[in-house]
Every structure is written in structure tokens, then in C-alpha cells.
Amino acid sequence: MDDTIVAIATPVSESSIGVIRLSGSKTFEIIGEIFDSKRLKERKPKSFPFVCVGKIVNNNTVVDEVVLTLFKAPHSYTGEDVAEISCHGNPYLLKNVLDIITSKGARLAKPGEFTQRAYLNGKIDLLKAEAINDLIRAHTRYAHLAAISQMEGKLSEKINELYSKLLDILASVEASIDHSDIEETFLPSKTLFDWLVDLRSKVEKLLSTAKIGKITVSGLKVALVGAPNTGKSSIMNALLREDRVIVSDIPGTTRDVICDELSIRGISVRIFDTAGVRESSDILEKKGIEMTERVIKEANFIAFVLDGSRKVNKSDMEIFEKIKERDFFIVLNKIDLPVQTTPEDVLKIFGKNPLCISAIKYENISGIEDEIEKYYFSTGYSPETDILITNARQENLLREVIENISKAIDSLKRGLSEEFIASDLRKAKVAFEEMTGKVADDAILDRIFSRFCIGK
Length: 456
Known about the structure:
Blueprint lengths: L4 E4 L6 E9 L3 H8 E2 L1 H5 L7 E9 L2 E11 L10 E8 L1 H13 L3 E2 L4 H8 L5 H12 L3 H11 L2 H25 L10 H19 L2 H9 L1 E7 L5 H9 L17 E7 L2 E7 L9 H16 L2 E7 L6 H10 L4 E6 L9 H8 L4 E2 L8 H12 L15 H22 L4 H19 L5 H8 L7
Parallel strand pairs: 1-7, 8-10, 8-11, 11-12, 12-13
Antiparallel strand pairs: 1-2, 2-6, 3-4, 4-5, 5-6, 9-10
Helix pairs in contact: 5-6, 6-9, 7-8, 7-16, 8-15, 15-16
């Protein structure tokens, strides 16, 4: 925290502008040594942010003409003195300017270190810090909405609201302990029970958004599963609108799991084209089938692909047995060919109406998108209207809160003293504080901020 840090804050490639960011106590001193501007010399900055045009100079040699923006602590992103230098977007120039700055006493920033300093200086809490990284990585409309919601502090407000209720209950329990010598009951058990059940219910409701929240940020995993030569690769190509996967009439062409990402109606989707499942003596094909079975276990949603130009066979039935307890829908492909398996046959055998398509002719591909969209909103939650839990850290800590409140309720039911109840509630309090970063382990912080880009 005592060091002045520097990093390139934009992608290192040829572009119109490349930005270099400095933060720390020596920022203005370093800028004074490398930045030549008549305006800066004649008019010492009195109000911030201060913006001016000048030159980066090294050993009396002009390196680049730039725009400098200065931010004075604590009114900056990190809460420290900050400078942002907008150079011409030449990777060589940016590296040159970076070397000059480090030669003056700054050190290269670690990934996420600017945001980590913002957190440590009290500019943001840990939930907002995570949202900043989510916003950088948001590639779809709903991922963007979820990140903006958290960055604006909506999740923080909700967590603090629940945390405040917990503190009120804990204060009442501890007051009851302090007044245990009074014969009359200070805090009726029924009142405390109602408070705890109500709080647990509110935390459980927030936790129930975790499934859609994590899918929104990380992507909905959709696996295309079926026997060989049912047209899974053609379906993937049709969804991607490009020839991503090799397609042939030879069964078993796909021997590996192929994954790609796309946006379907604002939803981030990770689509998996899997190897056709069947009995095989081919070593490579067997490995592909093993990977398929692993994808089936990890997928959120499965498209069970059948070939309408042939009868349902043993391989189809074996695959159905593997997925029947999962969330899936049935795709009856190749309806452009003479029909051997009808939608009525599928309903009779598998108990579900199929979606009939021709992947090769792009017929009714939008029906698959409809199914994906319907599944996404099946939880009843949406980034447009709801506050979402978006990662495993947040989810696990809320589970800790619920677990400890439940223990407190159990202690109350068993007639244990208030000391036991207070102990469980203090553990729930710590879990809430870890969510927002009021208390945080250094190793956890390092793990969170190491996922950020350098320069952010």
C-alpha cells in the first residue's frame, strides 16, 4: 500500500489510444519528472480532476504527446492520488512510457491491485469489487444488467439490510443474557423464534437466486447429447451460424467434446457438442464418450437429440436412462427426410413432446432458442428485476448464515440458554461481514483480485 503502482489499463494492441494508470503517494512527483506541459507549470492544479495536454519526456527526448488526467486523494478510483496518461495506442510507446515511470520509482501493479486499493481504502465493498470484474467480462445483456445492479450497490444494500436485522436480534439476545437475573422473561422465546424464522426465510429467498445468478455471469451450460449421427454437430453449427464443427454422414465423427460460447436473446450460453454415445471398441471414441458422460453431469440443461429418419434404437434408450433425472428437452432432428420416428412415437416412448427441426436446413432452430430462454427464466428470477447472487463465494457464505441461524433456532427449541443462541448468531454475523469485506482473510482477497485484469 505504500508503493506507487503503474500499469497499462487498456489492451496492448495498436489502437487510437492507450491508457497508463498510476496510483499512490508518489504519483504527482513522478508526473512532475516525466510530463512537460506549460499549462501544468503555470497553473498548478487547484481543482480536480485536472486535465491537460503535454509531452512525456525522457532525457530531454520527447517520447509521446499525451493527455494527462489527475485525480486527488481521496476523490479517485483507488482513494489515492491517481494519474491517467492517454498515449497513442502503440504497444512500443506504451511499454516505453511504462519503463520510464518504473525507473522513477513506481512498480508494476499486480492483477486487480487498483480495485483492491479501492476496497482497502473504503471506496467500495467486496461485493462491488466483484461486480466490477463481472462488468468487464460481461458479454451479454443479462450479464451486463446483473453486474451493473451489483456495482450500483443493490446487493450490498440487501445484505446490509439483513445484517442489520441480525444485529438487532443479537443485541436483544445479549441484553437478555445481561438481564438473566430478572425473574420476568426479558425476551420471550416466541418473539425470538419468530424473528429468527423470518430472517432465515429472507436469507433463503436471496440464496434462491444463486442458480440464475451464476448462470447469468458464467453462462448457461447446454449439452447436445445423443447417439452418433443424430445431427448434434449440425445443430451446434446452426446455433452458432457458422461451420464450427465438422459434419459428415459417418457415425462417430465427433470424438471429443467441443465447446463454444454465444449469446441467445441476451443470455450467455456455453454450448457443448458431445461425442455420440454408443458401445465402441475405438480407444479415442471411448474417451470421447467418457467426456460426454462428464458433461452430462455438469450441464445445466440438456438437448436430447433423436434422428427422425430412423427408428428409436438401443443407444437412444441408454442415453435416456442417463439423462431422465436431469433438466432436458427432446429435439427430433432430420424432419426434412422420410420420417421413421414421429412426434407421437417420441411422446409415447419418452413421455415428452419433441421439438421438430431440420438442422441442416436451419428449420425451427429458433425453437431451441425458445427452450433455452424458457429454462433460463424458469426459476422466476431475472437480472432486470431481481438482486442476484452471482458467484460461489457469495452463495457459500449465505449458506453459512442460514446454517447458523438454523442452529440458533434449534438451540431455542431445545430450551438451551441464550449464550448458545448468541454464539450461533455471532457466526452468522461473521459470514455476513465476509460477504461485504468488513472482515476478510488475505488469502481470500488475493484469490478474488487475482482474477482481475492488470491495470484494473
